[in-house]
Design brief:
The chain is α+β, with helices and mostly antiparallel strands. It has 3 helices and 6 strands; from the N terminus they run ααββαββββ. The protein has helices at residues 3-23, 29-38, 56-62; strands at 40-47, 53-55, 74-85, 88-99, 102-114, 119-128. It has a 6-stranded mixed beta sheet. 15% of the residues are buried.
């Protein structure tokens, strides 16, 4: 895969997996947790739509609290745009979550660390739209 493909794959795979996590649809919760966690740099930080900073350890503590909590939630990612140079990539995309009749949308910007194998999430900024 080239760097653009690595970033797109990581964004799409993470959102497929987080949807499964929210829905509780997995035969092996620990394996899915490891798949979700494996895509992040140890230095990962995000600013969520509410303006709160979340570290990788905070994300790891939060995930178990929402496993299976939203069995009807669906997540769609669209309008992915990628730029990269050297060892870094920048992606922007729109994420839509539908839970029953509640629809939330966010525009996200993410910085990825690139290596020969994959793209790792380094920073993520979400803005409600």
């Amino acid at each position: 895969m080239n760097n653009t493909e690595k970033i797109i794959w990581e964004i799409e795979e993470f959102h497929r997996n987080i949807e499964k996590w929210f829905q509780g649809k997995t035969e092996n919760q620990e394996s899915l947790y490891q798949e979700l966690s494996a895509g992040f740099s140890q230095d990962f930080k995000m600013i969520n739509g509410n303006g709160d900073t979340v570290t990788l350890s905070m994300l790891g503590e939060w995930l178990p609290t929402v496993f299976g909590k939203f069995p009807e939630r669906s997540i769609q990612v669209e309008n992915i745009e990628i730029n990269h140079s050297g060892n870094h990539g920048l992606a922007t995309y729109i994420e839509t979550q539908v839970t029953g009749e509640i629809i939330t949308k966010r525009k996200s910007s993410a910085v990825f660390l690139l290596d020969k194998e994959k793209a790792l999430w380094l920073h993520l900024i979400e803005n409600w739209i």
